[in-house]
Amino acid sequence: MPSATKPAIYFFFETPVTLKDRTGIKKLIASVFRKEGKKLGSLNYIFCTDKRLLKINQDFLKHDYYTDIITFELSPKGLPIEGEIYISVDRVKENAITEETSFKQELLRVILHGALHLCGYKDKTAAQVTLIRQKEEFYLSNFS
């Protein structure tokens, strides 16, 4: 059970990935929720393969395509946010090449993307995509 002052943020690795400065990343994630005015209880990040995330996408969202991230909010309204965020390491690697950025930078962007979804940001319309991207860039720029 997470404490009242410090949210519980965990990383699980179903596939190998280098994730340096985990403490700093956890502080960044917690700061996103604070700055967005949301109370975070606990959050699990699960790093997996394309195959695993495709299966989750098919089973839970009825989508038959690859994606880099799927976010599940698990808490009832009004309570501190609890969630699970599944990230395809394969997709992040591909996106880093496509976007001409480093794997580390793209992985951080996707980690923030999931946190922003739990803060209420969507990415279904062009305007929503623009806003969530601006938020990602804002928080990335504040991470040293």
Please give a structural write-up.
The structure is a single chain. The protein is an alpha/beta fold and 144 residues long. It has helices at residues 22-35, 50-61, 89-98, 103-118, 126-141, and strands spanning 8-13, 40-48, 69-73, 81-88. It has a 4-stranded mixed sheet, with helices on both faces. The longest helix is centred in the C-terminal third of the chain and has 16 residues, at 103-118. The chain is globular, with a radius of gyration of 14 Å. The model has no long low-confidence stretch (mean pLDDT 94).
Q: How many angstroms separate the termini? A: 30 Å
Tally of separate helices: 5
CATH class identity? Alpha Beta
Structural class: alpha/beta
**CATH fold name, please?**
Collagenase (Catalytic Domain)
Number of domains: 1
- SSE order: EHEHEEHHH
**Main sheet, how many strands, which sense, barrel?**
4 strands, mixed
CATH architecture: 3-Layer(aba) Sandwich
Q: What integer is the average pLDDT?
A: 94
Helix content: 40-55%
Task: Give me a quick take on this structure.
With 144 residues, this protein is α/β, with parallel strands linked by helices. It has one domain (8-141): Metalloproteases ("zincins"), catalytic domain (Collagenase (Catalytic Domain)).
Topology:
Blueprint: E1 8-13, H1 22-35, E2 40-48, H2 50-61, E3 69-73, E4 81-88, H3 89-98, H4 103-118, H5 126-141
Helix pairs in contact: 1-4, 3-4, 4-5
Highlighted features:
globular; Collagenase (Catalytic Domain); single chain; 5 helices; 144 residues; four-stranded mixed beta sheet; alpha/beta
